[in-house]
Design goal:
By secondary structure, the protein is α/β, with parallel strands linked by helices. The protein has 2 domains: 3-231, Spore Coat Polysaccharide Biosynthesis Protein SpsA, Chain A (Alpha-Beta Complex), CATH 3.90.550; 260-444, UDP N-Acetylglucosamine Acyltransferase, domain 1. Helices cover 21% and strands 31% of the residues. It has 10 helices and 36 strands. The strands form 6 sheets. The protein has a 19-stranded parallel beta sheet that branches. Helix 1 crosses helix 4.
Length: 475
Amino acid sequence: MTDSRLAIIVLAAGQGTRMKSSLPKLMHPLAGLPIISHVLATARALDAAHVITVLRHERERLAELVAFDLPESLLVDQDEVPGTGRAVQQAVDSLPADFDGDVLVISGDVPLLNAATLANFIEAHRERAEVAATVLSAFPTDVTGYGRIIRGDDGSFDRIVEHKDASDDERAVDEINAGVYVFGLSALRDQLASLTTDNVQGEKYLTDVIGLLRAAGSEVRAVPVADAWLVAGINDRAQLSDTAAKLNAVIVRGWQLAGVTVQDPATTWIDLKATLANDVTLLPGTQILGSTTVATGAIIGPDTTLLDCEIGEGATVKRTDGTLAVIGVGATVGPFAYLRPGTWLGADGKIGTFVETKNAVIGEGSKVPHLSYVGDATVGVHSNIGAGTIFANYDGVTKNPSVIGSHVRTGSHNVFVAPIRIGDGAYTGAGTVVRKDVQAGALAINVAPQRNMVGWVETNRPGTDAATAASQSGD
């Protein structure tokens, strides 16, 4: 049910220069989703009456992403006046005139802060009607650089002191400002009007609103978060890596508790959108990425990366790189297979060692055991493609299809020059280059009699080890 008394402001106007990247900071991937997508998902889960996202740098790219993830969010462009205070001020000005509830302010670069934690935070703020604002605090291991929460002798909130302005005693405080706030709208609006840029950075700071509220005699609370990692922000790639590792550990543990065997959590990565059934086994060095789904009893890994793949029940995929591939029930893949988009392997089929596939439909029980390339091809059921087979699908201008029937047996080291069709039950001889269609039940071979030139080595390579061995062989 929509919380009619809640508005959420998502701060996403920062430039993110410390990422040193052409990609906007908030669009860097984290567990398969852009950083800001995690924050927008949390905002959506809280079901607020209003969500406002404040943008500035890389505005168009971020606006497109916000429109996709949270289309109901109102977009507000921050003007030339810098600072989080100014961003919130403009967002508040965009709220409907009849709204008079609470305003939750969250940052687009704090992706691990979940809806349950924020719901408890909002509830704590609403416990006392006289509280004008509530600050989310935390107790991280390293407090360097953070603003400190200073409390009075009775434990009540007194003020926030920035690290650079703190005394030695204040720097010894281990409770920090997490940068997440809930304000009563009327109190927030009154103090936003008093913000100035009279500081070294020339910015309007949202933290100054807390000081102004306290100076006006308003009550402010600070509520600690249960785990400090929930409010970890991302400003550079090192922090992105740390956050990714923490989130992945949570994801992996969640799947373990749901009945998935993960042999080595430290080397296993699972994206948020991936889906795993119970009794799946993930071996070391496995990455389950994108919207990959893995059915019951499948074994994935070791050293396997699957992106947007569908793995059937009881299938085995070993040392394989796969993208947009479908693997059927009981099928086996690898080791050292490369599944490109459009690969479809039927039930009990096999794609073996050093096999590459692309736009290939391989039917039930059919096998491509080793050392082959299968591109733009359809293989029927219970056929076997011999070792070292190449589907020559490209004529230099266009890609052409090959159709292999059911119960076909092709010899080793074949080349199928597309477009080509091989009928059901046909055979092809070893070393055959197939340029013409093969009828059902036929044997296709290239007739080229073998010619042995007796004495060639001794005549043309005299004095070599080969010539000596040949002369001494007695053959």
